[in-house]
Specification:
The protein is of the alpha/beta class. The chain folds into 2 domains: 146 residues, Cupredoxins -  blue copper proteins (Immunoglobulin-like, Sandwich), CATH 2.60.40.420; 43 residues, no CATH class. β2 and β3 form a beta hairpin. The longest helix is centred in the middle third of the chain and has 15 residues.
């Protein structure tokens, strides 16, 4: 299941360094819309590192927190009082308001969580997007679009894998409408981290 990335208007500047007006067909050369993302392992069964996903950098501490809870059977369930304390600590790491962090913390960490689903970037044809991605995976990362026949992914930055802890910029020129899965090209065939990191959806 895929969760689409929808942020309230109050959060628009939290991960965009430049804004793009919501028009149906922006012209090439308009300011790029910037996403500050991290590639991280999502919690797997038994608390083990699962598949890789993209998440907003401000949410990375929460994803790490959920993974830690799943790694210890006794921490999968938390009381409301415990979650209130957790939210206070996490808000300092995330830079988000405590009440917003608290809404993202489940009582049962084993339940389906929106932050664990592939990250969806919605764009319109002609839009320019920059992905500022930090590699939080234990191995190399090279985000790529599956079947990029239109040359949407641009620039030399998409040619070299990122080492663990390294950050790179990946440019997307949304030339053609469609749905483009984003995966880790640097992982060997069959690796868990060569799965769906996210999806780019380009609309007319």
């Amino acid at each position: 299941m895929i969760a689409q990335h929808r942020q309230p208007s109050s959060d628009l500047t939290a991960h965009r360094l430049a804004a793009v007006a919501p028009v149906s067909a922006p012209e090439m050369g308009a300011p790029a819309r910037i996403y500050k993302l991290s590639a991280v392992p999502a919690p797997g069964s038994g608390g083990e590192a699962g598949r890789a996903i993209l998440t907003l950098q401000r949410h990375q501490a929460i994803v790490d927190y959920l993974r830690r809870r799943l790694s210890h059977a006794g921490d999968a369930m938390r009381s409301s009082e415990q979650l209130d304390c957790d939210a206070q600590v996490l808000s300092q790491h995330c830079g988000l308001a405590i009440d917003k962090v608290r809404r993202l913390l489940p009582e049962d960490a084993r339940q389906t969580h929106n932050l664990m689903r592939p990250f969806v970037i919605r764009a319109v044809r002609g839009e320019q997007i920059e992905l500022h991605i930090s590699n939080g995976l234990p191995g190399p990362l090279l985000p790529a679009l599956l079947d990029d026949d239109f040359g949407i992914q641009q620039g030399a930055s998409c040619r070299r894998p990122l080492d663990t802890g390294e950050q790179g910029v990946f440019l997307l020129t949304c030339k053609q409408t469609g749905i483009y899965p984003i995966y880790n090209q640097a992982c060997p065939q069959g690796s868990a981290n060569r799965c769906l990191l996210g999806v780019l959806m380009i609309e007319p």
